Each structure stands twice: as C-alpha cells, then as structure tokens.
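Homework help thread (please don't just give me the answer)

Our assignment gives two proteins as sequence + structure token strings and asks us to describe the second one. The first is just a warm-up. Here they are:
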Amino acid sequence: LSNISEKDILKKMLTALSQDEQFLKMFVEGESAYESEDAKIIENVVRCYNADFKDILIKIVFKLVDLFEQNSMLLKNIAGVLKRFEPNIVEIICREIKKDEAREKILFEFETFLSIVLTKEKVASFVEFFKENKTVHWILYGILYTAKETRGAEGLSIYEEGRKYLEAVYADNEKRREE
C-alpha cells in the first residue's frame, strides 16, 4: 500500500478505506507495525492531493470516529492533510456534526481531530456553531485545552482565544483548579 503513488490508484485506495469498515479496521490495527509505510502513504496523499480527496478523507474521519478510532495515527495524519489544504475544514466538519443531533451529543469524540485542525482564526466560528447548546461548552473547552496541551505556542494562542467566547467555562475551570 505504501508504494501507491499514482493519484487515481491512491484515490481508489482511500475510497476503499472510506467504504469498507473491515479494511479500515485492519489498516488502523496495523498502524504501529507499519508506521514508516503509513507515513509514506500520507506523503503520497499530500503530493497528489486535489479537491477529490477532501470528501473521501472526511468520510474516513467520520468512519474512524464511528469505529472509536478517534485517536489513531491515521485520523491525526488526515487531520494534518486537511488542515494544510482545506482552510475551512473546521466549518466543514462542524456543519457535518450539526446535521446529526446524535453526533453533536458525542462531539467529544472529535476532540483529537478538531484540536489538530483548529486555528486561532477559526475559534470564533467553531464556538459559534455550538454556542446555543450549553451542554457541549465543556467539550468545546476540552478541545481548546487539548490544542493547548499538544500544540505548543500555537495551541496556547488557540486556547487563549477561546477564553473570549467561553468566559464562564474558563472561569469555572480556573476556580476548580484553585480548590
């Protein structure tokens, strides 16, 4: 699989991953054993990326979340690719989540993905998507906190930007830490 570098064949392989749950599970289960090969696949995706890949990669993201593989290297790598090529990926994913009430209830399962693709400039629109649903404000905070903990200075700026929109949650968390 790691030798697939032709755009059409790579697209077919990604489509198969997005459609075949067993193939996707097998691919994710073998991640640690084939880390260098997986990296080569992602390099090939980056090299060949075009608009056709976006929808396929998004389907894989949702499938991985459905399979409880939201912390897999594949998901993290796809997040990196989509962040690089799709400036509106945060809005795209949030719109898809909002379409399905059940998905919104499990927003926390998108924590890893969203903490990777989120940028300081997208924090306002990210919070805006879910501001009416106060039950997910702590989840939004968790996503921002994960960005802070995993992305260095960039993550800290994302986290601090979130403070403007989730003041009560930040204040409550800081109060709890003092206790």
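The one we have to describe:
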Amino acid sequence: SLSVSMKLAALEGDQMKRISAMIVILSVMLLTGCGHNKDISVGDSVYELMDSYESDFYWTPIWVYHTENNFTVVIQDRTATVQDFVVFSKDREVIKNRRIDLQDFDDLYGLLGTSKNEIERIYGPAHCRVGSGFINPGYITADAYLVLFYYDTSDMLTCVSKFDLLGSILDDPVEVVSV
C-alpha cells in the first residue's frame, strides 16, 4: 500500500513537471511573439503575407490585408514584393503610412476633361497602375479609397472610378463619373 502511494505520488510529480514545462514553453512563445503575425514591411512577398493575414481586397498591384483590427493597404512592385503601404483603422483613420502621398478628391466630376499631365502636376505621380498592362493610374485616398483614372488616346481624362478598399467589393465601384 505504501509502495502504491509512492508510485502515485511519483506519477503525479511527473505530470506536474510536464504541466509546468508546458506552461513555461507557452509563456515563452507568447512573450517572444511566436504564433503572432509580424508587421508588414517593405520587401515582404505579397504571397507569403497570405499565410499570415486574410487578404480582403486584391487587384494587382493593390492588396488589402486584414491585420488585427486594422487594414493594411499594400502596393506591390513587379516582383510581387511590398513597395509601399499604409495602415488604416476600421474607422478609416491613418495609423501608419510609409511614403504614400494620400490624396483627397473633392470633385471627381470637375476633373473630367483634364489632361494626364495636369493631373500628375496637381496630384503627383500615381501610386500604382491598375488594369491590363497596368495602364490606369490609381491614387489611394486619405479615407481608404482607390481612385482610378481612365484617359482617351489624347491623354484627356474621360472616366474616374472610386473603389472602397475596406469594402472588399471590387466589382461594384462606389462612384463612377465619366464624360
């Protein structure tokens, strides 16, 4: 009976050691960030990011990843790596911005008929080029929209489309204005 009690005590001791070891291992993992998503950085592969984050919107070269309670809008380069990015809160506030000159477009209708050179003079170079062959210049706005410009053969603006980057509905632009 005494040997059975000693065996049970030894068994319980081994189980306690295992449980204690598991607690220590899990604590170290949590403290070192193991199991957590890393921050998105310039040079990351947009395809590898899909292993860590849910992609809410994709239209080459724009990706939107749901990162914790925020949304990271990524502009990829031609090698599918992160070139620039901006992080928005779910309330469309800018949390972090890396080199993207976010725009505000008050009157999209008023821009129709403007030359491509004039648009670039006013707003700077496009943040990205979208579409077949990356031909349509696009700008990201300060409130998380993608505004695309469409020019005719004489480089005059004939149509503007505005897409909600946080809305995940690529096929349904928020606003389209055209001549």
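TA reply:
I won't write it for you, but here's a hint about the kind of observation we're looking for: The first helix runs from residue 2 to 32.
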